[in-house]
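From the methods appendix. Each design record in this collection lists the tokenized structure first, followed by the designed amino acid sequence. Records were kept in a plain field format so they could be parsed without special tools. The example shown here is representative of the layout used throughout.

RECORD:
FOLD TOKENS (378 positions):
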């Protein structure tokens, strides 16, 4: 069982899919690991550390040669998939809802591709939950980024020269990223409020010491899907939510938005008029910017300063801004999934296509897209 890991830093992705820590455990499963030179550079892992853990280092071509499994952070190109044997496994964050044509081209190369984002959120698969491991770090980093861009202090300070008030932070979307943002902003001393459309979020927000603010009508009471995600809200609800947010946001120093709905564009929560009502120097971090953005005027990869002096931050790949930590957790998520795909006695691959984790994540097999998300809409 030969595992390949490519250098994704060339494509702007600093994270890496294995770490010296997981290499030992992959070897114990019976794997040999080949890594492209420089693959760990963005995550502060030198080639020598991979070699010391028992991996071999080489060119991309040498790494892919004879590989049975490609572990990746991002979706590899169809070209890369074409260099793998038919039936080889590709496991990574394949961004399944975007670029279906590109995904089809990859499928046609004959690889069996697994998208880690589709891992079911059940107890058994918690250790494989890449959305959680990465979103948690993004929520933390968003607050750190906000604090470094904000020109004032977060905590209340009582000094001989006078008292400095605590910053007010508003977290929109209280899922994994939002809850970590709340906890981090509280630790820095901000006064924190948060909103969400799922009723379950209310208690979680309160348990972190933040105040929950939301339109709690009948629709709110039914806004959570069986899988624990938010539903798209009606136009009426969105109007009520906007009125509430408009009033609240004008008094905030920091706004961090994290709202997502799986497989859809991010909901627009903050309008240009709301931003225009904020104080100069306020900072908005839009963690949903890559999925269309929660904030009007946010630009992917940019910090936009509005006419009234509000900074709208659209950093992309925020987990990648903590690449060593993000890689170590991600690599462990992959290892845990791989352990379910291997016959530990025989030390060889034994994918059970009836397993619910496999069914939920397998995008392509035998040259075709097989996941229900690609089925033609009825
Ligand atoms: P997500 O990334 O899909 O969305 C982020 C948050 O945005 C969610 O809380 C969502 O409700 C919220 N949101 C969506 N539309 C909104 C709107 N219009 N206004 C305000 N907020 C809006 O969500 P996530 O972080 O992946 O978490 C989803 C749920 O899954 C949470 O309940 C989380 O606790 C749960 N979860 C369960 C497990 C598990 O059981 N293994 C693991 C991780 C997360």
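DESIGN:
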């Amino acid at each position: 069982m030969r595992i390949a890991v490519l250098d994704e830093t060339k494509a702007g992705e600093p994270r890496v899919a294995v770490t010296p820590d997981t290499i030992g455990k992959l070897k114990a499963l019976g794997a040999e690991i080949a890594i492209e030179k420089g693959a760990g550079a963005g995550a502060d892992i030198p080639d020598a550390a991979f070699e010391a853990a028992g991996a071999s280092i080489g060119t991309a071509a040498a790494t892919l040669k004879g590989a049975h499994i490609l572990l990746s952070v991002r979706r590899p190109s169809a070209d890369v998939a074409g260099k793998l044997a038919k039936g080889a496994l590709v496991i990574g964050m394949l961004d399944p809802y975007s670029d279906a044509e590109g995904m089809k081209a990859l499928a046609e190369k004959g690889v069996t591709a697994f998208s880690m984002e589709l891992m079911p959120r059940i107890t058994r698969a918690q250790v494989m939950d890449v959305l959680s491991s990465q979103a948690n770090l993004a929520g933390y980093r968003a607050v750190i980024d906000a604090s470094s861009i904000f020109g004032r202090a977060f905590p209340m300070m009582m000094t001989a020269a006078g008292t400095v008030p605590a910053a007010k932070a508003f977290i929109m979307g209280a899922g994994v990223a939002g809850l970590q943002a709340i906890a981090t902003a509280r630790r820095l001393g901000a006064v924190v409020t948060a909103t969400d459309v799922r009723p379950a979020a209310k208690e979680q927000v309160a348990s972190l010491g933040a105040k929950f603010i939301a339109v709690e009508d009948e629709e709110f009471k039914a806004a959570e899907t069986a899988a624990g995600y938010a539903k798209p809200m009606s136009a009426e609800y969105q109007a009520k939510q906007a009125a509430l947010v408009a009033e609240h946001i004008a008094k905030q120093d920091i706004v961090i938005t994290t709202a997502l709905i799986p497989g859809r564009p991010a909901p627009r929560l903050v309008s240009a008029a709301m931003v225009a009502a904020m104080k100069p120097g306020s900072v908005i971090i839009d963690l949903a910017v890559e999925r269309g953005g929660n904030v009007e005027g946010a630009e992917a990869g940019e910090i936009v300063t509005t006419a009234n002096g509000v900074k709208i931050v659209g950093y992309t790949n925020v987990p990648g801004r903590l690449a060593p930590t993000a890689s170590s957790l991600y690599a462990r998520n992959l290892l845990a999934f791989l352990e379910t795909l291997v016959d530990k006695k025989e030390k060889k691959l034994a994918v059970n296509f009836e397993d619910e984790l496999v069914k939920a994540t397998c995008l392509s097999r035998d040259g075709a897209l097989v996941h229900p998300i690609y089925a033609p809409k009825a």
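APPENDIX NOTE: The chain has a mean pLDDT of 96.
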